[in-house]
Design brief:
Length: 149
């Protein structure tokens, strides 16, 4: 079962601004010195620009949460985590969004705490949060729910 991420206008705006700033920084030499085009420096600017834009776009667009037989597969761009259901100890509603490991695109998120994670938890923002939590509890009924409002 696959859950898509919830999309929030704030996060969409932040990612768009980040991509624009990255493009501006990389392409700044073109604005300062149009001679860069004639000296063959265009490839040295365009290739990194395309790579950075593609990477940031991939990170922002390719976010999903997949329930597999034994694990919850959390994926965001190149970042992937396999969380065994029996390792999940707690779900926190309304977590701190600005620190930690998070694969989100919305402020309406939950934090999944698990024993084997390097950081101990991951913040996710499934579009159908209640159904997502119900599915986690169905697979591990010892999960505690904490509401941090």
């Amino acid at each position: 079962m696959r859950f898509k991420t919830k999309r929030d206008p704030l996060f969409t705006s932040l990612w768009t601004a980040l991509i624009l700033v990255a493009n501006l920084v990389i392409l700044w030499p073109l604005l300062l010195d149009p001679q860069v085009l004639s000296s063959g420096g265009l490839v040295g600017l365009i290739v990194p620009d395309v790579l950075v834009t593609a990477l940031l776009g991939w990170l922002a667009i390719d976010i999903s949460y997949v329930f597999k037989e034994e694990v919850l597969f959390v994926k965001g761009g190149m970042f992937r985590s396999k969380i065994r259901y029996e390792e999940i100890t707690q779900i926190t509603r309304h977590p701190n969004l600005w620190v930690g490991y998070r694969l989100i695109s919305s402020r309406d998120a939950i934090e999944i705490h698990y024993r084997t994670g390097a950081l101990g938890s991951v913040v996710v923002s499934p579009a159908d949060q209640e159904r997502f939590i119900e599915e986690l509890i169905r697979r591990n009924n010892s999960i505690q729910i904490v509401d941090r409002s």
